[in-house]
Amino acid sequence: MCSVCLPLSKLNKTELIKIETTSAINKKMATYEVDHQSSVSRHDNKWRENIISQLHERNRTQTSCFSDLITLHNRLFENVNTLRGQNMQLTIANETLRRETSSSTGTSISLAHEARLLKQTEELTALHRKNGEHMQQIVDLNKKMQEMVKELQAKDTSLAECMETTNSLRLEITKYINREREYETINQMLKDEHQALQIAFESLEKKLRKAQEENRQLIERLKKYKERDAEKLNEENDNFLKKRQAKVQKELEDAARDTRPVSPDRSSLKEGIAGLPTTVPTKVSVTFSAHEGEVYAVKWSPVDRILATGGADRKVKLWSVIKGTSESKGMLVGSNAGVMSVDFDSTGTLILGASNDYASRVWTVSDLRMKSNRVGRARGTTMLLAPTVQRHYFRADPSNYHAKLPHFASLIGIGGYRTSGSMYYLALSATSKDRGRDVEGDWSMVG
């Protein structure tokens, strides 16, 4: 009996110490809360009240999900405290009864009290066990709550970042929407301008077609007038040739009747040069690079040792060739295609060039300047001749054989190539009435 009572007394003392300690802590906490509330009321700062209200709000929001568990835990603590009080009372009663019955022989009453005490001890042990389980559950729930608080903080941080990203994206969307509206306005303006330009283009295209039709009609009329003029000039040329042939025939008859000796003059020598014997050259005297491409034409000056060359680089170059050396004397420009033929006049002061841009040009040798530019009608001028004798040649268009006379008395024309490859020349005399006019002549094949 004594062995049972001793642990119970010790246990009751321990529980009493715990109860006293708990009550002391509760008193201190109440005192701290009262002091804290009094200090807060003394300072009366809004920011502290704001912080406290935020803490209370956070406590309310974070503990609302555990309110049932906390209520149950508080009830268990109240039950434990009640049982502890009852146990304390029973322990005191037990000690009193033990003292009273120690001198008596009431064994049955003591046994009944011992049995009752043992039963209450077992109940107290079960309650302590349940209390420990509940405490462990509270610890686990606190850990879970801390983890959930951490997750909540992480989610709050992520939510704040997402809100910032959303705000920035909204600003960008607003900016892009404004830019899209500006682009739509500009696009509409460009469409209106394009429509206006399209209308203007259609109007100009109609005017162009009308002008082209008028131009075609004018060209046809001009061709008809040119053909008429050419026919008239051909008749005049035929009459002129007939008269000249009659005059030459008469002069020949007079010369045949005249038996006086005749001394040769320069004109007869010039006309007889064609009968002198010729030889093929066998030795190269001078070699030099004249043009940046092919060389199409060369011609010696009749008065100086000046050589004119024309090539594919659209230039006519003058060279002084003396004692086996060549020296550049100038360059004549103005052609829009390769120069196919060059020639000097009888005095050596003018030089004539023909190129594939449907034109022939005249330059002065002294100042290297262009004096005249004559444009043909078709595939380009292929050959030019300006001989020093009285017989001259036309510059001919190779597609319709139409000749155009320049404004120089010493130069009348040249010939050209047909599309079949044959070469033709047209010969007329140089008279004042033929200068600068379009004529239609008699052609004779030369090779």
Automatic annotation (TrEMBL):
GO function terms (MF aspect): protein-membrane adaptor activity
Family, as annotated: Belongs to the WD repeat ATG16 family.
Protein name, per record: Autophagy-related protein 16 domain-containing protein
Cellular component terms per the entry's GO annotation: Atg12-Atg5-Atg16 complex; autophagosome membrane; phagophore assembly site membrane
Pfam families for the chain: ATG16, WD40
SUPFAM superfamilies with a match to the protein in the record: WD40 repeat-like
Keyword Coiled coil in annotation: yes
Matches recorded under Gene3D superfamilies: YVTN repeat-like/Quinoprotein amine dehydrogenase (2.130.10.10)
Bias (Basic and acidic residues): 250-260
Coiled coil: 187-250
The Autophagy-related protein domain, residue ranges: 51-234
Keyword field contains Nucleotide-binding: no
